[in-house]
Amino acid sequence: MSIDATSRPALDDDRLRGLLRAVTTRLMEKRSAAIADVPEWERLRDRARAIKRDALGSLGRHLVEFEYHVTASGGTVHWAADAGEACRVVEKIAADNRVRGVVKSKSMMSEEIGLNTFLEQAGLKVVETDFGEYIIQVAGERPSHIIAPAIHKSRADVGRLFTEKFGAAYTEEPDELAARARDVLRDEFCNARMGITGANFGVAATGTIVIVENEGNARMCTTLPPVHVALMGIEKVVPAIEDLAVFLTLLARNATGQAMTSYVSFITGPRRRGDRSGPEQLHVVLIDNGRTRMLADPVLRDVLACIRCGACQNTCPVYRNIGGHSYGGVYAGPIGSLLGPGLEPRTSPPDLPFVSTLCGACAEVCPVKIDIPNALLYLRQAAMAGRTLKRLPHRRAQRLGLRAWALTMAGPRRYAVASRALRLVLRAFTRGGRVPRLPAPLDGWTQVRDFPMPARQMFRQMIERGPNGRRE
Amino acid sequence: MRVSIFITCLVDQFHPEVGQAMLAVLDRVGIGYDFPRGQTCCGQPAFNSGCRAEATRVARHFVTAFAGSETIVAPSGSCTEMVKKYVPSLFAQGSPEREEAEAVAGRVREFSDFLVNVVKVVDVGARFPHRLTYHDSCHLLRGLGIRREPRALLAAVRDASVVDLPASDSCCGFGGTFAVKYPAISGEMGREKLQHAMQTGAEYLVACDTGCLMHLRGMIAREDLPLRAVHLAEVLAQT
Q1: B179 touches chain A (CB under 8 A)
Q2: Distance (Å, rounded) from C-alpha B186 to C-alpha B173?
Q3: ipTM of this model?
């Protein structure tokens, strides 16, 4: 289905649009205020981009170094080529440790590989512990934003959901709702034998994984259960611990407008002798799932620099109106329109790269300066050339139309003839001084707006005859 | 000084009054002009649709049509950006075509940029006793970095009161073929832009791109709003 179709329910939902606009606007305002405090902001962006580019340029070496240091500090590294393998690795770790219940902190990677469904089918109980993710799990939905998974739910929605699912008295007070979740989650944390997290960064030189969060739930997932499994995309590796000074300055400010999130966990190996807390085992699952394919692509490799701040979603006028679920994939918004075709070419909606006005607002806020509009253009070319796994609907017809258009535009005489023909057609569709409806392929235009009336004369005719015109 | 007019296909076909207004302003500031007859379009519709070969065909024609021009002035940010940034990239590095395209790209200026930075004029002698607000077209703003120039020109218009548009730099929803392929999304974006304009109490919403204007005018007509969307040149032409 095209995004024109999948976005219609969202566009008809005034409540949803109100929520999206309000939350994304607030995040962008907080971002602006936060970056105003950092005079070297632009230089930091350049630096972040350079670090990521270099790291991706010698990714193999960094990953091996990362593996070496994780292992040296007592952890175990697993390599997974795709989603299925990653899920099986996690299931095996669970089985080896007789784990029945798992607590999870927020991880887009786990969404990407469909981990929850997989583990549940294997008979495990999986509990999301990030409040937003918990709401989504209780509702049986999917996250619609990279950092604010329940952005599409209002307080009242959550109040009703909790009342419906838990039978408690209705409230929409955030504190009370959070307290309800906390009651449930506290027991889960204490009983779970395995904690699963993502990883925002992995440091090659030290084998450290870095987890950025605000609720402390990831800290609980990595300290209370005896087994910690961290899911990490292979592109998340950075060379040195000093590099984090750049990324941590950028990430929270760009994402939520915070100078720093409430919790930043640096995890190097499992619990050591003398440590007062921490898991007995640390497993890092390094997941490819399409990333080396993107790395081999001259344009999409840049997209791997993404640090998942979500700012491109917040600023995108399309995302702000249609929300994350309309995009039909794990990642939504501008970055989703690149990650979808890059990571999930078999399932990603083929018209994703076209759902953008190329306005460039996303590139302006991207902390690692990914040229998103340019990458979208590149994917459009691939789609129109038929080089994509999923074929773009009406591709041939569109191409044929544009070929005819190009032929017309490349010859002034043909242009003149076509201009006359266009005028005749428009006159035929003029009703009471307006052009309210046109047939395909311009019917989309007149769905929401009038088409301009044919001018009495074209500009080129005026300039030859009109009072202002001068002959060449 | 003499310039060549690149009128753009949209102005040529649908909004010739914008072109006439631009000529009136050029006349007033003493700039002569010619109109290279062979011109049609810059190729942007095909380029943005992912049809590189078709875009190249039209771009090649564009470069030929303007090969003899010294300075090229266009009433559109996005067409100017296309010629400046993307047309050269369509031809192989080091080829004679690439060189010609780069030469033409270096000579094209958007209308407000030309007035303020080349002619070095902000007061073009316009008078327009109305309340105005200005929308930043995406490619003009983010592609060419032109934010100050149109505002400076409007600020010098006699009897006009210019008010700030909330979220003036957010996209209006035109996006070329996007407007046709995703009408509901495009329409919602346009509605948000027009709501912001109405909030300011402005009678006129001013922009520098006929693409945005064609979309916004169409929506204003459809929804019968008490607002007019006009090109900067149309305001500057008023006396």
Answers
A1: yes
A2: 4
A3: 0.97
